[in-house]
Amino acid sequence: MDRKREPIPVAVWMAMGACASMIAHHVSGKAVRDALFLSSFEVTSLPKMVMVAALFSIVSVMVSSRAMMRVTPGKLVPASFAVSGALFLVVWTLIGQFPRVCAVLVYLMIVGLGSLLTSGFWSILSEQFDPRTAKKYVGKIAGAGTLGGIVGGALAERVAVIYSLPVMLPVLAVYHFSAAALLWKLRSYAEIPAGAAKKEEASERSGWEVLKAAPY
Q1: 3-class DSSP state of 107
Q2: What percent of the chain has pLDDT over 70?
């Protein structure tokens, strides 16, 4: 007998949509980042910008790791996506007057915040889904991300050709606003895995205390 396919839970659909929006932003954002910077600065300035962005990324990791100790990923990450979207709108309104400053800001935002938000997204999945559910649907979620990357890259090329490069900034904002809304709503649908309360209590202890308590 043919086995009926189990319907995909609503929470998984939301995770898939958030992943698609996040990766669409990641792919198109890198193209916008490089194009804006190289249209405002000489190519010889790129190595310096990469080093500055790397330092900014290190500082961002330190700040976010401290924030994760005080606020759960389920609350912090959607809020961070929303703040990122708002920042892209602010840069869009100012890019006509301050193109060079805005090009630098976009570069720092894409490099410094992009990887942090991606990491935070997967932290939410580990927090909201039990291991069996995560293992069952993580392939579909990652596949939605791949599809989002394809759509994001194609859309970035079309928008740049038909309109202008700065028009992509509000598009990038929409991607992150969508991810923020879906991840925030995900909290009310996904099941909190067993032992999550213990994990939250453990997060309040220092890393050294956790290591001392671990049997291995």
Answers
A1: helix
A2: 84
Taking the C-alpha atoms of residue 173 and residue 25, their distance in angstroms, rounded to an integer, is 8
- The sign of the dihedral angle between the CA atoms of 57, 58, 59, 60 is positive
Check residue 193 and report its DSSP letter.
P
Other Cβ atoms less than 10 A from the Cβ of 147: the count is 15
Under 8 Å between Cβ of 180 and 81: yes
Q: Where are the alpha helices (DSSP H) in the chain?
A: 10-40, 46-70, 73-94, 99-108, 114-128, 131-162, 168-189, 196-203, 207-213
Residue with tokens 């935002």: 109
Q: Which residues are within 8 A (CB) of 151 and not within 5 positions of it... i.e. 6 or more apart?
A: 20, 24
Alpha carbon distance 142, 146 (integer Å): 6
Four-point Cα dihedral 4, 10, 15, 16, nearest 10: 50
Half-sphere exposure of 59 (CA within 13 A, CB side): 8
pLDDT confidence tier of residue 197, bands split at 50, 70 and 90 = very low
**52-67 per-position pLDDT tens digit:** 999 998 888 888 888 8
Task: Residue 48: count other Cβ atoms within 10 Å of its Cβ.
Answer: 10
In sequence order, which residues have a C-beta less than 8 Å from that of residue 18 and are 6 or more positions away? 121, 178, 179, 182, 183, 186
